Amino acid sequence: MLNSNREPIGKLISQLYRQNQKFLVKELLPYGIGSGGQHIFLKLIVNRPGITQDQMTNEMKFDKATTARSVKKLEEAGYIERRTDPKDRRSSLLYPTPKAVKFAPVLQSILADLDSKLTFELTEEEADQLVALLQKVSKNSANL
């Protein structure tokens, strides 16, 4: 049975998400990367060159419109390029540009800094436990 005096999990996750976004918007603005998860898509494209928008939508659990907007903005900012899929002329494969490859370590540093700030008062074991618990909650949320 759930403790009715405990703060709702959804409320805490929402607060965490908003703070997370404020930090990322401030840190990524100088690089021309906005909100809406653009950094998540960029990181995925850098790590998996040649991925399609549909693959990203399915993997990241975003809707198609959000994926399309983020890809368009990343392309306009010079971070990614589309190439026609030789196996399916209707589909595009997404590749990082040299600008994206050069920026990838900076992005990783910003994300590591965020994680460090979020887990400041946690032990390594507590941080690992938090991640494991959040993965379970995330898995449960897929059934909502």
TrEMBL record:
InterPro entries: HTH_MarR-typ (IPR000835), Tscrpt_reg_MarR-type_CS (IPR023187), WH-like_DNA-bd_sf (IPR036388), WH_DNA-bd_sf (IPR036390)
Domain spans labelled HTH marR-type: 6-139
Assigned keywords, A-Z: DNA-binding, Transcription, Transcription regulation
PROSITE patterns: HTH_MARR_1, HTH_MARR_2
A Pfam entry, by short name: MarR
Gene3D superfamilies documented for this protein: Winged helix-like DNA-binding domain superfamily/Winged helix DNA-binding domain (1.10.10.10)
SUPFAM superfamilies xref list: Winged helix' DNA-binding domain (SSF46785)
Molecular function as annotated in GO: DNA binding; DNA-binding transcription factor activity
Protein origin, superkingdom: Bacteria
Protein name per its UniProtKB record: Transcriptional regulator
Species in which this protein is naturally found: Paenibacillus graminis
